[in-house]
Amino acid sequence: MAQQERARRTRAAIVEAAAAEFAKRGYAAASVNTILEGSNATKGAMYFHFQSKEDLARAVLGAGLDRYVAITEKWADTTAHPFYVIRGIVDDIAQNFQNDVIVRAEFRLIVEPEFYAEVHSGGGRVWGAQGHAQAERALAMGDLKPEFDATKFVRVLAASMAGQRYMSDLVADNADLRERFEESVEVVLLAMASERWLAEFKLHGWEHYGENCAKTTSDLPV
User: Fold this and answer.
1) Which of 113, 121, 123, 217 is deepest in the core (most CB within 10 A)?
2) What are the beta bridge partners of residue 193?
3) Range of the domain at 161
């Protein structure tokens, strides 16, 4: 058992070091030697777990996917309003970008030509599915304008978040990413949420829509 635990820790350290290198340099420019140095593992240990740089990248992508699954599962059973849930998921993603090199590396890798296909099976798909389900709830509650379906809502929000993330990379500053992602959520809601929901939101703010506060604006007296 002790040997298995050492092997698990060694593998995790290699994946973490690989994520740091991929997040910094991208896939093509990443150095296996730098990854090896960062992990403090032996070359034999590295090649016991991973046969190639591509194997390392796919391990990072898998670890990133696990992070997104954990984020969405956190919000799976809440009774909060669907827009509040979407905002919470997006904020958790922003915090993970700031604090977890695995998530930053996953984002960097899926825009590399070698991993374009991962866009359809990676973290974006996981949170997008939850976002779509919540947007469907909002539509059924009358809080999403009927001319906007859930697919369009999530697609526009995801595109805005990707743009915000790209701009943060350009200025090498993740410190304000939560604020930037919050802007993305609120701008999309200003365009797509119902007028009644927006009026209530302006009066009460986000806390009105938290746990046990998921009533629709259509339930309010006219």
Assistant:
1) 123
2) 144
3) 65-215
Residue 191 has a CB neighbour count (10 Å cut-off) of: 11
- The pLDDT of residue 209: 84
Q: pTM for this one? A: 0.87
CA angle 71, 64, 117 (to 5 degrees): 115
Residue 30 token pair: 């990443």
Q: Give the position of tokens 């500053």.
A: 173
Q: How far apart are the first and last CA of the chain?
A: 65
CA of residue 87 relative to chain centroid, distance: 12
Nearest to 194 by CA among 161, 164, 220, 155: 220
Q: Report the chain's mean pLDDT, rounded to a whole number.
A: 90
Q: Tokens 């290699």 appear where?
A: 14
- Per-residue three-class SS string for 15-69: HHHHHHHHHHHHHHHCCHHHHHHHHCCCHHHHHHHCCCHHHHHHHHHHHHHHHHH
Of all residues in the chain, the percent with pLDDT exceeding 70 is 92
The CATH number assigned to the domain holding 186 equals 1.10.357.10
Reduced to 3 states (helix: H, G, I; strand: E, B; else coil), residue 138 is helix
Identify the segments of the chain with pLDDT beneath 70. Answer: 1, 119, 172-175, 212-222
Q: Total structural domains in the chain?
A: 1
d(CA 76, CA 48): 37
